[in-house]
Write a structure and sequence with these properties.
Layout: H1 17-25, E1 29-34, H2 71-83, E2 90-95, H3 105-116, E3 123-128, H4 135-145, E4 149-157, H5 161-166, H6 173-184, E5 189-196, H7 203-216, E6 220-225, E7 228-229, H8 233-239, H9 248-261, E8 267-270, E9 280-282, H10 289-303
Parallel strand pairs: 1-2, 2-3, 3-4, 4-5, 5-6, 6-8
Antiparallel strand pairs: 7-9
Length: 313
């Protein structure tokens, strides 16, 4: 049954990525993770070491491809499996692991433009840090966006510089804005990542981040739950009792409150996340991802609420 929300064809009361893809391309679209084996400036000593405290050894690319293989070989390996079930599907190569603008621009251009030419590819997604976007890189991305549907994903996580320092993000919110504005001023679509449940953050902190993102008005937003993974600095802090994990109930209510203040035409690409079962330490309730998503739907329905209902222009 349709919810009545303008950007939905089912019971969803927020603008899902699936709805956006269906409306834009008219059929099933899959993102195919591509791994270039790139690092980050807060890992190699340029800005810091160890990376963000929550980031796994795979640099948040736990489901990405093998960087030893070419872009085409990585893409073809995934596409072959998907093609067996969805023969007419379309694909978006997704440069996910590491900071995918933290390299020589000519190297990046070759990889991104090669991805844009792959069979049935309708776009390219590039995940990176806002402080890894030079003017030269932004110009190259503009050129790419004129060739294919490009979206650049920026890991903000929080607007609080205090929290950013605690999680070793190694850049300020002001620095994030510089990178974001380089892209937005060129008309490049941006997806902003935020994380709920970061160490020391209150409900007010999480809502402040969502409010700032609403003001920035990106093309899309990914709302993540903080996953505590084995082998991370965050895991050590958690096991030492230095912070408490957000509860399932509080996460669901916070996400619904955030959806209400985000403009209705911003695509919500994610409302929770995936943590590898054998790597996840907490919260274990996150393994029932679809139950969490369903409960968010139920809470929005219980409130008779929609994305953007409390957005203040």
């Amino acid at each position: 049954m349709k919810s009545g929300f303008a950007y939905s064809s089912d019971n969803k009361r927020y603008y899902t990525y699936n709805y956006y893809l269906r409306k834009t391309y008219g059929k099933k679209v899959f993102k195919v993770p591509i791994n270039l084996g790139l690092s980050c400036p807060n890992r190699d000593g340029t800005k810091g070491t160890g990376g963000c405290t929550f980031c796994s050894g795979m640099l948040s690319g736990d489901f990405a491809g093998d960087p030893a293989l070419s872009v085409k070989k990585q893409f073809d390996a995934v596409r072959k499996k998907l093609h067996e079930k969805w023969q007419h599907a379309l694909y978006i190569p997704y440069f996910q692991a590491g900071s995918n603008t933290y390299a020589d621009v000519f190297f990046l251009k070759k990889a991104f433009f090669e991805a844009a030419e792959l069979d049935n590819a309708v776009g390219v997604n590039v995940a990176t840090r806002a402080d890894c976007i030079s003017d030269e890189c932004a110009d190259m991305l503009l050129e790419l966006s004129e060739k294919t549907d490009l979206e650049v994903e920026l890991g903000l996580q929080t607007v609080s510089d205090k929290t950013a320092k605690r999680i070793n993000r190694c850049h300020t919110y002001a620095e994030f804005l510089k990178g974001f504005n380089k892209l937005k001023s060129r008309g490049i679509d941006v997806c902003i990542h935020i994380i709920n449940g970061l160490p020391g953050e209150t409900y007010t902190d999480m809502m402040n981040t969502a409010a700032e993102v609403a003001h920035l008005y990106p093309h899309s937003v990914k709302i993540h739950l903080l996953h505590i993974l084995k082998g991370t600095r965050l895991c050590d802090e958690f096991l030492r009792g230095e912070f408490e994990q957000i509860s399932r109930e509080d996460y669901i209510n916070t996400v619904c409150d955030q959806l209400e203040i985000l403009p209705e035409d911003i695509v919500i690409s994610r409302i929770t996340g995936d943590g590898k079962r054998d790597e996840l330490v907490s919260p274990m309730w996150s393994l029932k991802k679809f139950c969490v998503m369903n409960d968010i739907d139920k809470e929005m329905q219980r409130r008779n609420s929609y994305q953007g209902v409390k957005y203040l222009r």
